[in-house]
Amino acid sequence: MGKMRKTKSFLMSTAAALLGLAALAAPVSAQDITVIWADDSTSDVTFDPRVTQSRHEEQIIVQVFDQLIVADEAGKLYPGLATSWQAAPDGMSVTLKLREGVKFHDGSPFNAEAVKFTFDTIVDPRTGSQGAIDMIGPYDGTDILGPYEVRIKYKRPNGGAIDSFTENELSIVSPAAVQRLGNQGFAQNPVGTGPFRFVSWERNREVVLERNEDYAWGPEFMGKEKSRVAKIIHRYIPNNATRVAALEAGEVHVADIVPALDTKRLGDSGRYKSMIGVAAGLSFGALFNTTRPPFDDIRVRQAFFHSINRPRLAQNLYFGLVKPAFGPLAPPTPAYWDGVEKYFPFDQAMANRLLDEAGWRPGPGGIRQKDGKPLTAYFPVLTLPDVAVAMQAEARRVGFDIKVENVLKQKQDEVLMANQYEMAVIRWVSNDPGVLAIPFHSSNIPEPGKFKFNWSRIADPTMDKMLADASAAPTAAERTRLYGEIQKKIMDMAIFLPIHDQVQTVVHTAQIEGLRYSRGNWQVRLVGAKPAGR
């Protein structure tokens, strides 16, 4: 009996999904379609942009909420809920004129009070902000200059303020809804001004959104036509194979984080379209523990860097869909410095010379030795273990014995806080170059009871000052210059080996078009989806 119920449930869900596809295949006069999205996680706990630190939750947030300023995939800025903005010459404030005639989904008005409420509550500890609290910078309050004009103030110069307003985490929330529902209630029933309204959330199964019929203030690059998407069904399917199978069976229209081989296979079939987005922030790479041998010697770190053929590694693992990385910041990140691309080309001869200079001599089994000890390093890996194994094989060719262990998060946290490792991989999605402080400022060195991300354990006063100066730069140009110098210093110190770009691989049925990545390239805006060719 139980098996019969499951079969019936599966057939009903499949039929419902196929009805969505039928709507997509309807005559060109059909206006309403349903888009079914398959997400690779079930970890969502809040859809409050002021609180979230999750790219999965932001896939919902980007549909429900609007930002003051909107950036397209390339980072070009457009008016959003703010029609114009002006930063003060000293970098201590930004004045914004706001769009009139906008309403939240609950019918309450968007105005200067809503902006002040959103930003003031982000810095209120009772809100429990995890991401926005960092995005908002050294916030010092909001002055209301009129019903539709505000001045955002800072405690010190903040050259990144305008860029910060494009972040999903700084989306504007409905004060009336927060006051009615409380923070916890709002997290489960979000109310924004965006193109879609929140309808329901069945934990670990799906979220349902419906079109905001009043929406007429989207950014210019998204077009001004009414959205053809009447409903979004956001399904949680964490297993890669199951998610791909659901896409091929017609149960979903769009799937995220599709494995590289499937992305290429489906994209080549003609029945599906693939979208490859390079995420802004930290490149996927390895941090080297500078407090333990053998990587306390810069020559050994440099030798390891030269031993890895990153273009070949990316090609072999990702079939050309993912490009090798060359610096700590991914190219789409503001203030990316292209000088990193000249550092550490694949050169086994150089790697061997550096190891010779450092006193490491060839030993048994091809593993180098020094003072009777092998050139070995412990490499616990939580994310993408295949990449670590490929690096292990490359480095062995010049005499490294890298001990790769695929660990769960609890084990990773234990060894990192106890300083019982030599290498660790990291990645971080962010639209702000200030993300460099997370793995490179001395205040972020982990210790028991303090899980932080400076896994190279670099404690360099010069680096700390450079990071502080860049964060407080009064202009975007000065900020770009200072973060360029920081990237150069990181590469000169050889403490972070960029391996490959972080990418979001999305595959969707060829029956729809008009999907666009949001800035940062993890989330996809669905408001522009429509039947292909119509």
CATH homologous superfamily caption of the largest domain = Periplasmic binding protein-like II
Number of domains: 2
CATH class of the largest domain: Alpha Beta
pLDDT averaged over residues: 92
Unreliable residue runs: 1-29
Q: Biggest sheet, open or closed, and with what strands and sense?
A: 7 strands, mixed
Total strand segments:
24
Provide the helix percentage.
25-40%
Shape summary: globular
The total of helices stands at: 16
The chain-level structural class is alpha+beta
Percentage beta strand: 15-25%
- Can you tell me the CATH topology of the largest domain? D-Maltodextrin-Binding Protein, domain 2
End-to-end distance: 45 Å
Radius of gyration: 25 Å
Keywords:
24 strands; globular; alpha+beta; Dipeptide-binding Protein, domain 3; D-Maltodextrin-Binding Protein, domain 2
Please summarize what this structure is:
This protein has 534 residues and is an alpha+beta fold. It has helices spanning 2-24, 55-64, 112-122, 132-135, 161-164, 175-188, 240-248, 260-269, 298-307, 310-318, 348-357, 385-396, 409-417, 437-440, 461-471, 476-493; strands spanning 33-39, 69-71, 77-79, 82-87, 93-98, 139-146, 149-154, 196-202, 206-211, 229-236, 254-255, 272-278, 281-288, 369-370, 373-374, 376-381, 401-406, 423-429, 496-500, 503-509, 512-513, 516-517, 524-525, 530-531.
